[in-house]
Structures are given as structure tokens and as C-alpha cells.
Amino acid sequence: MFKGTNSEDRHRGGFSLIKQLKDLNAFGIISTHDLELVKLAGRCHIVNNRSFNSEIQEGEMIFNYGLAEGICNDFNASELMRRSGINIIFTMEEGR
Fold first, then answer.
1. Which of 5, 12, 66, 77 is most buried (most C-beta within 10 Å)?
2. Total of domains in the chain
3. Cβ neighbours for 1, distance < 8 A, ≥ 6 positions apart
4. pLDDT computed for residue 92 by the predictor
5. Strand, helix or coil for residue 83
6. Domain extent at residue 20
7. What is the pLDDT of residues 63-87, one digit of tens each?
């Protein structure tokens, strides 16, 4: 949602859109990879978060295609980047 803008504007706009839809008694599915927006909406009890998750087993990504309660808890893109030769740094402190 609103890619190409700074993260604060994106979160403000995304949250505002979700709130407007709620106020209109609308319902539906909004898909995002933006974990900050997902956490914000979940804390405000405006939405119910669901996710698709995967596991990495013996170097293979396994997808069960089941819809799980809550926020996605895997980072399979990090595995794809690692396979592409990028040494993944998990915290900004590690990169200094």
C-alpha cells in the first residue's frame, strides 16, 4: 500500500484507509507485507491479522498454504537473498 513514499506517510495513509473502511462498515481483505502497518492495525483492534507462513527445512522452502492466525513469522525473502549471495544482517548493530 502506497509504496514509493516514506514509511511514516505509508503507515499513516494505510492506517487511515483501514479506519475509514471500518467506519463505513466495510469488510474485505487487505494484503500487505508491511509489518509495521499490520502491527498498528492489530493493536487498535480494527482488523484481524492472518498470514501465510513457510518453513525452511534442509535448505528447502516448504509452504503449507494454510491461513494462520496472526502476523507472518517467517522471513523467506531473507533465505532467497542469502541464496543470491547476500550476507544477511539481522540488526543494524551487526552491520556496523
1. 12
2. 2
3. 10, 13, 14, 17, 30, 32, 34, 37
4. 57
5. helix
6. 1-47
7. 889 999 988 888 788 888 888 999 8
